Amino acid sequence: MVSEADQKLREMAAHRGLKLIRSRRRKEGGDYGLFGLQDAEGKPVLGIESNSVSATYEEVEDYLRDQLHADWTRSAGTRKKTLRRQPDSQPPPKPRYKPEIANLLKRLPAAKSAEVFTDLLTRPTFRVERIVSHGQSTPDDQPMIQDRDEWVLVLEGAAGIRIEDSDVVALSSGDHFLIPKGQPHWVAWTATDRPTVWLAIHFD
């Protein structure tokens, strides 16, 4: 009959995937009361030599407890490492807004027969436009007069501008100026060998 202590040891071994072997031989000098452990394939793990067992109850119990502790430590260590790596393994959040990029100086219209005006941004209080010129000028009898202030920047090319009661002022890339609303003005000339690109902001 299996004792309660032996049954406990057998269950501990089974939880480790091992089989407890207990000797029942009582002959003098034999291994009665000793134990051994085998794996699932019948290979000796502890206390089995030459078809006899040699480990005591306490040795088997200590071995099984040590194995349980070692497995728990490895498992806990793996969990900690996994938790530490988890933030690094997560993909970065995707941006919620993707700006649409455009270039004012690419794919310019030919603008050889007439200036080309393109609205870039329109709001109730202001408007931004690109103007492309190529050799055009304003007729003397048709001055430009606007109902808003206008800030103008020459992005590339060259031109001449005349404000009422002023001389013609030559402009090149990077030059900018302000035209007050209601002020007559003329484009005296623009480059004929390349496009002239203006950025104009009309505002109240």
Helix/strand/pairing class, anyone?
Answer: alpha+beta
Uncertain residue segments: none
Domain count: the total is 2
CATH topology of the largest domain: Jelly Rolls
- For the record, the CATH architecture of the largest domain stands as Sandwich
Q: Identify the strand order in the major beta sheet.
A: 6-7-13-8-11
What can you tell me about this protein's structure?
This protein is α+β, with helices and mostly antiparallel strands and 204 residues long. The protein has 2 domains: 85 residues, no CATH class; 88 residues, Jelly Rolls. The chain contains 2 helices and 13 strands, in the order H-E-E-E-E-E-H-E-E-E-E-E-E-E-E. It has a 5-stranded antiparallel β-sheet, with no helix packed on it. Strands 1-2-3 form a 3-stranded antiparallel β-sheet. It has a 3-stranded antiparallel β-sheet with strand order 10-9-12, with no helix packed on it. A hairpin with a 2-residue loop joins strand 6 and strand 7. Helix 1 packs parallel to helix 2. The longest helix has 33 residues. The N and C termini lie far apart (104 Å). The model has no long low-confidence stretch (mean pLDDT 85).
Please outline what is shown here.
The protein is of the alpha+beta class and 204 residues long.
